[in-house]
């Protein structure tokens, strides 16, 4: 962690309000996950509520939490986005109840094995209650007798005392290594204490399972899990608003609130998660101890479609942005590790003291050029051959066919150069263009084994919080700048790429926009025609600051890149057919084993029908 991330982690441990400003690529999510882990381990009896604006962001936080050393039995994910988690485990309410019931059976089997190893004839592993009696009457008693007998022998230096008197040796007979080395009595005594901690942990877990044994209905078990058992609960702010009445009636309690994407959440939506519990009847005060808001007010604000409410009532101002505007103490993360230094300069001007992590200069990925491209980022001036430009088939449903064709043709070129589809995303500023891009990509690439569909085609607003190696950005408009004039939307648009960014737009329109000038001035330093190196394939060893060894092809028109892609695809098909002939088709190698795919496509993503 960087010094400012450590400062954010330190601030989050203190009671009260913590506001963390995280520019793009500075590790907001990783910092939030570490905050939650620190609080959970430091205050194990406290409960933490995680709130985000979108299911995508919530799943991102939750998946990273699963990699931390937080026991999964304490974690719960509420809402409809749970099925999108990239894990085979079920973290919904019913899924966690089933996990606890299965865990109970597994632990009772261990208790039976422990009883067998101690020659206890009773059926002590029948229920959680009988196992607790067994623990109190037998396990604790034998351990106390062992401690009393071994302590003077260890003090006298008897190296065999612990191994000879340890009562649970048979239970640990299947341990991968010998429990006691018989070289140092104190060391063996410490090993015995560790074994007893393991046994004690079994019965502690069983004690937590006892409520699920006593409660007979799934509904009651789910409510107990939510209101008492789970320590880390995650939900979206929308789910919190919908279920607030039910949660309060259930007696839901929590001590800490961590809110990711706080700058995208409306002010009233920010307050709702703070009041999901009634005040303590004894003191009249809320149980809430910490409120941690993490976001970036320089990125997209809350969405308010009604312009009157948005502009005059200022409903698009989040509580996070209000705190920053009023001068509340904030911790601003100041090192980005997402993008190349030159690409980060496109939005660095918007932040104070935004530097780069050391990996940006040393990581090999950032040092190498984009395969098949002369420059890692460019503005591409799209000239419609038919002179149509933007069109509006429905109100507010803006499209630009020439730009969509140009973007998809560039994507096809990247795939033919060997760049995996999973590393390319296409984003745009309008829903109409997103649908058009999807249709064009599906028609041109969807059924082809050479291309496949890109990792994602989305609007800028939906893609906030996500990233990819290569981004193709379509700005659509040709008559007016439109809502990308909002600098916050521009910052999000140009900050999603790690290694390559290509902006497709009408140069004459956007170069004169005063609000966007700090970014477009840097883009316009590059040629405004797509500079390609068709002879270069992925992975390239050319450094980003080296000129291409072969000649650079300047693409002057949509027709030219279409013809280039068609000729490259024809050559790739011939090469593929030749390879299949060489490996057993018609080329005399009938007994040779045919490879599953040509070597140049080993990194390519499988086509949709094979996925």
* Average predicted local confidence, pLDDT: 90
The end-to-end distance, rounded to whole angstroms, is 37 Å
User: Largest sheet, order of strands side by side?
Assistant: 3-4-2-5-6-1-7
Oligomer type: single chain
Number of strand elements: 18
**Share of helix among residues?**
40-55%
Beta percentage is: 5-15%
Rough outline: globular
Write the layout of secondary structure elements.
Blueprint: H1 3-13, E1 16-21, H2 28-42, E2 48-52, H3 55-66, E3 75-77, H4 93-117, H5 128-155, H6 161-165, H7 185-214, H8 218-229, E4 232-236, H9 237-250, E5 256-259, H10 267-271, E6 290-295, H11 307-312, H12 319-325, E7 331-332, E8 335-336, H13 341-348, E9 355-356, H14 358-362, H15 364-367, E10 377-381, E11 391-394, E12 397-399, H16 401-416, E13 424-428, H17 431-446, E14 456-459, H18 460-463, E15 468-474, H19 487-494, E16 497-505, H20 507-510, H21 517-523, E17 530-532, E18 553-555, H22 558-582
Parallel strand pairs: 1-6, 1-7, 2-4, 2-5, 3-4, 5-6, 8-9, 10-16, 13-14, 13-15, 15-16
Antiparallel strand pairs: 11-12, 17-18
Helix pairs in contact: 1-2, 2-3, 4-7, 4-8, 5-7, 16-17, 16-22
Can you describe this structure?
- It contains 22 helices and 18 strands.
- 44% of the residues lie in helices and 13% in strands.
- Helix 16 crosses helix 17.
- The chain has a 7-stranded parallel β-sheet, with helices on both faces. A 5-stranded parallel β-sheet has the order 10-16-15-13-14. The chain has a two-stranded parallel sheet with strand order 8-9.
- The longest helix is centred in the first third of the chain and has 30 residues.
- The C terminus is likely disordered.
- The protein has 611 residues and is α/β, with parallel strands linked by helices.
């Amino acid at each position: 962690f960087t010094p400012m991330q450590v400062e954010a982690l330190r601030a989050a441990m203190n009671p009260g309000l913590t506001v963390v400003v995280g520019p793009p690529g500075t590790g907001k999510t990783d910092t939030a996950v570490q905050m939650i882990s620190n609080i959970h381990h430091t205050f194990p009896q406290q409960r933490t509520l995680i709130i985000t604006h979108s299911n995508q962001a919530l799943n991102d936080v939750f998946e990273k939490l699963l990699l931390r050393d937080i026991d999964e039995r304490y974690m719960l994910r509420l809402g409809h986005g749970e099925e999108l988690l990239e894990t085979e485990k079920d973290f919904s309410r019913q899924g966690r109840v089933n996990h606890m019931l299965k865990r109970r059976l597994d632990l009772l089997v261990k208790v039976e094995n422990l009883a067998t190893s101690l020659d206890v004839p009773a059926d002590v592993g029948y229920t959680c209650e009988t196992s607790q009696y067994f623990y109190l009457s037998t396990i604790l008693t034998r351990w106390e007798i062992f401690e009393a007998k071994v302590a003077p022998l260890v003090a006298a230096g008897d190296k065999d005392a612990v191994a000879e008197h340890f009562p649970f040796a048979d239970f640990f007979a299947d341990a991968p290594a010998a429990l006691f080395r018989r070289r140092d009595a104190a060391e063996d005594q410490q090993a015995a204490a560790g074994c007893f901690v393991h046994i004690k942990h079994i019965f502690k877990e069983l004690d937590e399972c006892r409520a699920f044994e006593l409660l007979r209905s799934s509904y009651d078990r789910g409510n107990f899990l939510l209101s008492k058992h789970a320590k880390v609960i995650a939900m979206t702010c929308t789910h919190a608003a919908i279920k607030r009445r039910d949660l309060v009636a259930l007696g839901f309690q929590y001590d800490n609130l961590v809110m990711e994407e706080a700058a995208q959440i409306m002010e009233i939506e920010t307050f709702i998660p703070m009041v999901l519990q009634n005040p303590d009847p004894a003191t009249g005060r809320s149980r809430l101890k910490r409120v941690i808001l993490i976001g970036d007010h320089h990125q997209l604000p809350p969405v308010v479609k009604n312009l009157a409410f948005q502009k005059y009532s200022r409903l698009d101002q989040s509580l996070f942005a209000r705190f920053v505007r009023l001068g509340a103490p904030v911790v601003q993360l100041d090192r980005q590790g997402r993008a190349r230094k030159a690409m980060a300069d496109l939005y660095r001007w918007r932040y104070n003291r935004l530097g780069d992590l050391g990996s940006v200069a040393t990581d090999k990925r950032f040092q190498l050029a984009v395969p098949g491209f002369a420059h890692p980022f460019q503005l591409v001036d799209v000239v419609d051959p038919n002179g149509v430009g933007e069109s509006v088939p429905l109100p507010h449903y803006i499209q630009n066919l020439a730009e969509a064709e140009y973007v998809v043709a560039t994507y096809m070129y990247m795939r033919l150069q060997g760049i995996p589809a999973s590393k390319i995303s296409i984003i745009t500023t309008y829903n109409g263009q997103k649908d058009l891009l999807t249709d064009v990509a599906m028609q041109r690439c969807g059924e082809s084994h050479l291309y496949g569909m890109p990792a994602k085609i989305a609007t800028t607003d939906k893609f906030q919080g996500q990233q990819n190696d290569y981004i193709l950005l379509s700005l659509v408009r040709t008559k007016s700048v439109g809502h990308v004039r909002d600098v916050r939307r521009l910052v999000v648009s140009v900050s999603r790429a790690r290694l390559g960014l290509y902006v497709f737009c009408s140069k004459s329109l956007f170069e004169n926009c005063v609000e966007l000038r700090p970014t477009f001035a840097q883009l316009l330093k590059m040629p405004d025609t797509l500079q390609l190196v068709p002879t270069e394939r992925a992975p390239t060893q050319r450094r980003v600051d080296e000129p291409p060894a072969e000649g650079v092809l300047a693409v002057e028109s949509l027709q030219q890149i279409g013809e280039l892609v068609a000729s490259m695809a024809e050559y790739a098909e011939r090469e593929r057919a030749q390879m299949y002939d060489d490996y057993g088709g018609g080329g005399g190698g009938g007994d040779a084993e045919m490879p599953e795919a040509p070597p140049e496509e080993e990194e390519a993503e499988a086509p949709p029908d094979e996925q």
